[in-house]
Design a protein that fits this description.
- By secondary structure, the protein is of the alpha+beta class.
- It has helices at residues 12-31, 38-43, 47-63, 105-109, 153-167, and strands at 2-8, 66-72, 75-81, 88-91, 95-102, 113-117, 121-128, 134-140, 145-149.
- The chain has five helices and nine strands, in the order E-H-H-H-E-E-E-E-H-E-E-E-E-H.
- The chain is elongated.
Amino acid sequence: MEFEEQQHLKLWWLYLLVGVDAIIVLCIVLFDKGGMSFTDLKAVYFAPLWAVILPFAIIYLIQQNVLTLRINEEGIYYRYFPFKARLKHLKWDEIAKAHITKYDAFGDYGGYGVKIRLWFKFDDKAYILNDKDRGLQLEFKNGKKLLFSSNRIDEMELFLINLKTRYHIQAIQ
C-alpha cells in the first residue's frame, strides 16, 4: 500500500513576462535609430541575443525540477530532483504529527519552490510547487516542520486515514 505523487513547478506566466521583455530588447537593438548591424552584434559577441535567450533557458531548467513524494507504512520518502538526487526517508517514529493543513504560499512562505517560513522561522520548511492552498504538514519530535504541497490532496487524505486505521500510526492526525 503506497501513495506516490510527482509535481512540477509550472511557471507559464513567467514566460509571458520574459517574452514581453525580450520583445522590448529586440526592438531596441534591431529597430532603434541606426540599429545594430550583424558586424556590431558580432563585435559584442551577440550579447543582446544572449540576454533574450538566457532567461527562457533558465525558466525551462527550473521547470524540469520534480518533487517526488511517496508515503507508505514505513514512513514518507521525498526527493526534489536535481537538488536532492536520492530519496530522503522520514520514519513515522521521527514524526510527532502528520496532517492536512491550509497554507498561504505567498503570505506564509513568500512564494513557490523550496521555502522557509517568513520572519526567519528556519525550523519551518516547505516544498510548494502548485497554486493550491492545502498540503501535508509534518511536525517532527525535534520541533521542526515540513510542508508538502499536493495536486491530489483528497486522495492523500483518504490514504493517510486508511494508513492510520490499518497500521495504527499515531503520528497521523
